[in-house]
Amino acid sequence: MGIPAERIERLHDLAREATAEGDVDRGREYVRLARRVSERNRVRLPRRFRRFTCDECDAYLRPGSTARVRLQSGHVVVRCRCCGATKRYPYE
Ligand SMILES: [Zn+2]
User: 76: which DSSP letter?
Assistant: First the structure.
């Protein structure tokens, strides 16, 4: 794993921790930083990162706090509670 990939992992953890502490804006800063690292270094964001971040408002999606997660006909539907955007992906 290269250094940019490690930074992204670390930023993901920081975003999760900040959001868990109720600091959604700080979580967003980490999410945006991680996106920037990914773009600058042409490193793909891990699937885990893409699923737990809002594409619309950059919030870290934490089920039960910033996100509502439900299952719908074989899909996981994640709704961002900050901006209302939804994303869905197949249930595994
Ligand atoms: Zn959002």
Answer: E
Cα–Cα distance for residue pair 10/39, rounded to 1 Å: 16
pTM of the model: 0.91
Contact indicator for 37, 63 with CB cutoff of 8 Å:
no
Number of domains composing the chain? 1
Residue 34 Cα to ligand 1 midpoint, Å, equals 16
73: CA distance to ligand 1 center in Å?
23
**Residue 92: pLDDT band with limits 50, 70, 90:** confident
CB-CB contact of 19 with 27 (8 Å): yes
> Ligand 1: distance of its center to the CA of 71 in Å?
19
The vertex-73 CA angle with 68 and 77, nearest 5°, equals 20
Closest-CA residue to 49 (of 21, 12, 87) = 12
Q: Which residue segment(s) compose the domain that 32 sits in?
A: 3-90
